[in-house]
Amino acid sequence: MEKIKIQNEAKQLEAKQANIGGSSFFEVFAEGMNITCATLEGTTFHDVNLSKVTITDANLSDLEINGAQLGGAYIHHIGLPPEGHENFVPGAKQRPLTFEHCELEGSRISNCNLTNVEINDCELTGLKINGILVEDLLASYKR
């Protein structure tokens, strides 16, 4: 495979139906880049600014986000593809998500399926479920 090296230059690249596997980008500006119908499996992003990035209609299975600032993030419509979507699989079950050591103060979870969700060893001050303080629920339960 031919290797193209661009260094200290301003270029706009357009790749269509191309294999650019194994490519590396170091200290680059790529604002406004558009990636459509691409396989990025196994790709690593390290020390990157992904603010204002939008990811839609994506398979993020086994995604790991570590040491990231997510303030203001809007995460919605997460789960398996719905019936009618080309990737819908009848009877498929969503694998569980894991949140560990996350700062979620002031966050809001609404209209979510929380069946069998476990919350362990977490600071619950001010946490409400349907407007009811969890601390009050736990105190009542312990009585």
UniProtKB/TrEMBL annotation:
Protein name: Pentapeptide repeat-containing protein
Pfam family name, one: Pentapeptide
UniProt-listed InterPro entries: 5peptide_repeat (IPR001646), Pentapeptide-BTB/POZ_domain (IPR051082)
Transmembrane segments: none
